[in-house]
Amino acid sequence: MYETTYHRPSSVEEAAALFAKGSEAKYLAGGHTLIPVMKQRLAAPSDVIDLGKIKDLIGVDVSSDAVTIKAATTHSDVAQSGPAQKAIPALAYLASLIGDPAVRHRGTIGGSIANNDPAADYPAAVLALGATVKTNKRTISADDFFKGLFATALADGEIITAVTFPIPAKAGYAKFLHPASRFALTGVFVAKTKAGDVRVAATGASQNGVMRVPAIEAALKANWSAAALDGVNISADGLMSDIHGSSDYRANLIKVMAQRAVTAAG
Ligand SMILES: Cc1cc2nc3c(=O)[nH]c(=O)nc-3n(C[C@H](O)[C@H](O)[C@H](O)COP(=O)(O)OP(=O)(O)OC[C@H]3O[C@@H](n4cnc5c(N)ncnc54)[C@H](O)[C@@H]3O)c2cc1C
Questions:
Q1: Burial (CB count <10 Å: 0-12, 13-18, 19+), residue 214
Q2: Are the beta carbons of 171 and 130 closer than 8 angstroms?
Q3: Whether residue 98 has its Cβ less than 6 Å from ligand 1
Q4: Is the CB of 114 under 6 A from ligand 1?
Q5: Pocket lining: 181 vs ligand 1, CB cutoff 6 Å
Q6: Coil, helix or strand at residue 186
Q7: pLDDT at 139 over 90
Q8: Does 176 sit in the ligand 1 pocket, CB within 6 Å?
C-alpha cells in the first residue's frame, strides 16, 4: 500500500502551488487514465490534485472565429454543446465518438491531450485544425505540442487551461474504432481553413502518435473531394503493426478514413 493525499483546489493558481509542494504530485481530471494507472501501481503519486472542480476550467466558448474548450470540460459536454455543434460540427462529432457514455461523462479534453495516447481522438482535431493549447504559463501551437508517444511539450507541473480551435471553412472526422476499447484503430481529421489551406491529421496509426499526412493534404488542396484521394498511396513506414492490424492495413485505413472524413465535411 502507499499513501496519497487528495486535494480539491478551487483555482488554477492553488492547483499549481499544491503541485509545487508535493514530492511527486499528479493532476487529476476525469481520472479515466490516471486512476487505472494508479490501480495497476504504475504510478504512485504523493499528491493527487483534482482539477475537475475548478470553475475556470469548465465550459465551451464560441466566438465568430474560434471555439475555445476549457481543459476540464468533459467529452460529453463538448458533444452536446449546441454552439460547438454549429461552429465546428466535426469537433462535436469527434467528442461523441470517444469511448462509451461513462468515459465521455468523466474524460476531459485537457486529460486527453496531456496524456497524448497514440490512439486518442482529440489530438487529431487539435493538429488538423491548427489549434492553440493554453496553459497557466504560455500558449503552445498544435504543431509544437505533441512530441511522440504519450509525450507533450508540457513542463512538469504545467496546467492546460484551454484549447482554442479556429473555425474552419470545412472539417470532417472519420474513425475506424476498435470494437472493444472504442479507441481509434485509425482516425483521420481533415480541415480546410478559411484561407484555403488544408491540414490533415491521423491518430491510431503512427508509432510516434498523432501525425500530419502531407500526401493527403496536397491532394485535397488541389481538389477537395474523396475521389481526389483514389490514387494517393500512403507509406506504411513508421506505422504501428500489432494484433489489431498491420502497418499496411493502417496505411490503407488512413486513406479510407480520409475519404470518409472529406465526404462528411461536404
Ligand atoms: C474504457 C475507455 C475507453 C476510452 N476510449 C477512448 C476513445 O475512444 N478515444 C479517446 O480519445 N480516448 C478514450 N479514452 C480516454 C478518455 O477519453 C480520457 O480522455 C483520458 O482517459 C484522459 O482524460 P481524463 O480527463 O480522464 O484524464 P486523467 O486520467 O485525469 O489524467 C490523464 C493525465 O493527464 C494529466 N492532466 C489531466 N488534466 C490536465 C490538465 N488540465 N493539464 C495538465 N495535465 C493534465 C494528468 O495528470 C494525467 O497524467 C478511453 C478511456 C477508457 C477508460
A1: exposed
A2: no
A3: yes
A4: yes
A5: yes
A6: strand
A7: yes
A8: no
- Nearest residue to 98 (alpha-carbon basis) of 71, 127, 78: 78
Domains of the chain: 5-50 (3.30.43.10), 59-166 (3.30.465.10), 170-265 (3.30.390.50)
Closest atom of ligand 1 to CA, residue 37: 29
Residue 1 has pLDDT above 80, yes or no: no
Are the beta carbons of 18 and 54 closer than 8 angstroms?
A: no
Amino acid found at 71? A
| Largest Cα span, the chain | 59
Ligand 1 center–CA 35 separation, angstroms: 10
Which residues are registered as beta bridge partners of 164? 68, 132
Question: CB burial class (10 A; 0-12, 13-18, 19+) of residue 236?
Answer: middle
The helix/strand/coil state of 118 is coil
Up-side HSE of residue 122: CA atoms within 13 Å toward CB?
Answer: 33
What whole-number distance in Å separates Cα of residue 212 and Cα of residue 191? 11
**pLDDT tens by residue, 27-53:** 999 999 999 999 998 999 999 999 999
DSSP state, residue 138: -
Taking each helix axis from N to C end, the angle separating 214-222 and 247-265, rounded to the nearest 10 degrees, works out to 30
Grid cell, residue 9, equals 483546489
Written as nine digits, the cell of 65 is 472565429
Contacting residues for 144 by C-beta, under 8 A, at least 6 apart: 153
pTM: 0.97
Residues in the chain: 266
b/e per residue 193-210 (b: at least 16 CB within 10 A) = beeeebbbbbbbbbeebb
| Amino acid (one-letter) located at 211 | M
Letter for the amino acid at 194? Answer: K
